[in-house]
Amino acid sequence: MVRFAQTRYIHSVKQELNDLLTRVGPGTGCGALMRRYWQPIALVDEFNPTLDPRMATPQGPRPVKAVRALGQDFVLFQNTPGADGSQRYSLLDRDCPHRGADLAFARYETAIDSAGHKQAAIRCPFHGWKFDASGQCVETPAEPEGSTLCTRIRQRSYPVVERSGVLFAWLGEEDSVPPPLPAFDCFTAPASHTFAFKGLWQANWLQAFEVGIDPAHPSFLHRFFNDAGWDEVGDNAAGKQFRSASAGDVDGEHWPMTRVMRELHRPDIRMDTTASGMRLTALRQLNDKTMHVRVTNAIFPHTFVIPLSETMTITQMHLPVDDTHTYWYSIFTSFDGPVDKEAMRAQRLQYITLPDYLPKAGRHNAWGYNAAEQQTSTYLGMGEDDINVHDQWAVESMGAVQDRTREHLGTSDKVIMANRRVLQKAIETVAAGGTAPGVADPTLSAQMTGPDTIDGFAPAATWQDWWQQRAAAKRAKASWS
């Protein structure tokens, strides 16, 4: 079995192991692991004809769309509402079981289920085969009168649930029981206090996640050379969290994040194991009395939770579309008042194009790189307004799938090394028939709440107590918590 070759300072990966950790298609070790977790496959907004004109027809919205996840193609469509009036969705394999035509182009119709209730159905335009919302074939109209062929045909269907404007699919084995979605803040807060958005990166999921959980990179990748305007940034400002102020002050010390990251670039990085993954603490000491404390969370296998401001968090998931493409899904959760969804969407549409959520920056335009800016205002030279493009460059510039055989890791990469060890062990556990860790393990569900985050200045001697008290106070003020 391939193992990590590791010393205190150098961590190298063999090609065989790199493939194991990154490849997600059917029949791969990591793909089998990923199918033990709910995966975000679409935003509810993607069915809105105002945001996606492809959904508009003279007869009304077309509630059918193609989606791709873990190297597989699916067709997603709206079903008839449930008894409580909530919108339901169905997800089927996309290749028609007759002769493989693409069901993303299916006709949207209705069918009557075994209980006599009307439900949504799709019909393949190739030969008219019709499938109800469960995937059962209910008509094969070209077959002889009285044919019972359709009773023996069922297209694979997958459970779908909606939380906070995101549709999650369970892509595990057909006879498996999915675990409950955890009671994280982003899932328990009401719709009025959450906003969901996404974007596509042209790279593998693991490097996208590893950039996000790296506590050292903000001091460089997101470094600004000046702090002008930091006190004017609101909670909803797109990508400007590194111009906002951290929470709290000690003896009048209240620096903007730009200064914290620029001047204190050697954080003391600490990790604590949690039921869902790891709690990550980055400590930056201003002086004998004052400590900057940033607490974030890595939720296995591909989600992180970070503070955007004193009253808002970001929960970001990374869907492996296939080996070389990743959709990040972010849920913004307010612990204060309701969010302005239209304003938040408009801010982000400055940098992302609909209907496929493609960034305007990328390799095609050098991610907006400006050499003069790199010398005068930012460390990277790719703009001050949208730090997401900074992360996008880091992820995509590594290549479609990062070649980890060429990297040399140091002690500041301890989180990256720890996560890879957990990932490798989880792949091996699932391959041996065991239970995947974290949110895939239903016995741990009761332990999965929050998770708490903080970003602020604490008394150096009592920072542990300080951050927990601040997090509890923030939670206590939330009307929904």
Which SSEs are present, and which pair or pack?
Elements: E1 5-6, E2 11-12, H1 15-22, H2 29-34, E3 39-43, E4 64-69, E5 72-79, E6 88-93, E7 107-112, E8 118-123, E9 130-132, E10 137-139, E11 157-158, E12 160-163, E13 166-169, E14 183-184, H3 185-188, E15 194-201, H4 205-212, H5 218-221, H6 257-263, E16 268-273, E17 277-285, E18 290-299, E19 303-307, E20 312-322, E21 325-334, H7 341-348, E22 352-353, E23 358-359, H8 371-376, H9 388-396, H10 414-431, E24 449-450, E25 454-459, H11 463-477
Parallel strand pairs: 14-24
Antiparallel strand pairs: 1-2, 3-13, 4-5, 5-6, 6-11, 7-8, 8-9, 9-10, 12-13, 15-21, 16-17, 17-18, 18-19, 18-25, 19-20, 20-21, 22-23
Helix pairs in contact: 4-9
Largest sheet: 8 strands, antiparallel
Shape: globular
* CATH structural fold name of the largest domain: Naphthalene 1,2-dioxygenase Alpha Subunit, Chain A, domain 1
Helicity range of the residues?
Answer: 10-25%
Quote the beta fraction.
Answer: 25-35%
Task: Give the number of domains.
Answer: 2
Top-tier CATH class of the largest domain? Alpha Beta
Descriptive report:
The protein has 481 residues and is an alpha+beta fold. It folds into 2 domains: 42-169, Rieske Iron-sulfur Protein; 183-477, Alpha-Beta Complex (Naphthalene 1,2-dioxygenase Alpha Subunit, Chain A, domain 1). The chain has helices spanning 15-22, 29-34, 185-188, 205-212, 218-221, 257-263, 341-348, 371-376, 388-396, 414-431, 463-477, and strands spanning 5-6, 11-12, 39-43, 64-69, 72-79, 88-93, 107-112, 118-123, 130-132, 137-139, 157-158, 160-163, 166-169, 183-184, 194-201, 268-273, 277-285, 290-299, 303-307, 312-322, 325-334, 352-353, 358-359, 449-450, 454-459. Strands 15, 16, 17, 18, 19, 20, 21 and 25 form an 8-stranded antiparallel β-sheet that branches. It has a 4-stranded antiparallel β-sheet with strand order 4-5-6-11, with no helix packed on it. A 4-stranded antiparallel β-sheet has the order 7-8-9-10, with no helix packed on it. Helix 4 (205-212) crosses helix 9. The two termini are 46 Å apart.
